[in-house]
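Worked example 4.2. Below are the chains of a multi-component assembly; read each line carefully before continuing.
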Amino acid sequence: MGQRGYALWFTGMSGAGKSTLSAELATVLRDRGLKVEVLDGDEVRTNLSKGLGFSKEDRDTNVRRIAYVARLLARNGVVAIGAAISPYKETRDQVRDTFPVGSFVEVFVHCPLETLIERDPKGLYARALKGELKHFTGIDDPYEPPDNPEVIVNTGVETVESGVRRILSALELMGLVPRVDEQRADLVHERLRAVGQG
Amino acid sequence: MGQRGYALWFTGMSGAGKSTLSAELATVLRDRGLKVEVLDGDEVRTNLSKGLGFSKEDRDTNVRRIAYVARLLARNGVVAIGAAISPYKETRDQVRDTFPVGSFVEVFVHCPLETLIERDPKGLYARALKGELKHFTGIDDPYEPPDNPEVIVNTGVETVESGVRRILSALELMGLVPRVDEQRADLVHERLRAVGQG
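Applying the procedure described above to all two chains together yields the following structure tokens:
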């Protein structure tokens, strides 16, 4: 019985917590016995999109490449987590349409801009506000929030743990994560097989 | 029990038969119960490498992108078939080194240049010989054959069927394909499970 794969698509501004949340969630999902790959924006830019910039066209190309890889993984039973700003709603919706219904879960990682500017651990917002970084989402480049994301996490007010729990609950409701009971039953099955009783 | 993933890397000149062989092999491997994805050079150029040309640097970038996706798939139990000219030996060897030992199988699809020019179903060699296509492998761009590929298929003299059988035998010897007996045992297991005896 193969695991059902799907895409978990994190969208949100720089510094909102997409990478942190997706890494934490990956750990939890692996503990539940799922295969998981995180396609993080920065890592993907190195491996798949070197040379692309931050124009609308280049951002969209980057998003589509992540989606292409996520599709390959998902149809082979992997939970593919995409974590890139992916600021354009239409592009995200187009990406959603390339997945089977119910196999694309959009997670909007929201944090108010003032909070992002205040936290700014990498100093990127400060540089963007000074005009040293161009095409910076939220400063001189748009961010279009989703209308109907499956999950919203507001990292301006809630902790990483709370956000992970919220996403996990949604996935459980959608039947995309084995509940702990089912998991135990599977373990029993596996053990029976291992001792030759299966 | 998860399937063991690995990369099957087809290298060879344009028209040598990489796409045909890899598509046929994919069918056979799926029939044996394996998960398979074919990362074909042309398709990958559309999805991952639009804008790249045929300079050494761009070809290497394309090859590395295919390899990156193949690694993600292979470590999740998928047989990832890469089918791109990948003309540079050093680059192929670097790619090999990014896979666990025994998880990278290089298939050299060889066909003599004269035969390729003679067959030339897409008329590409004719155009390259007239100078209409630049950077064409084998004409004005190099092809460096592998020193020690796991499999060599000579499509100048052998049929697709023969080539597929040769590759399949090699994979069986390497323990990378379930033999038909093992497969039958697994089926019995599955059926027992399905009727609640597992």
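Take a moment to check your reading of the output against the notes. Chain B has a mean pLDDT of 92. Helices of chain B lie at 18-31, 41-47, 56-74, 89-97, 113-119, 124-129, 160-173, 180-194.
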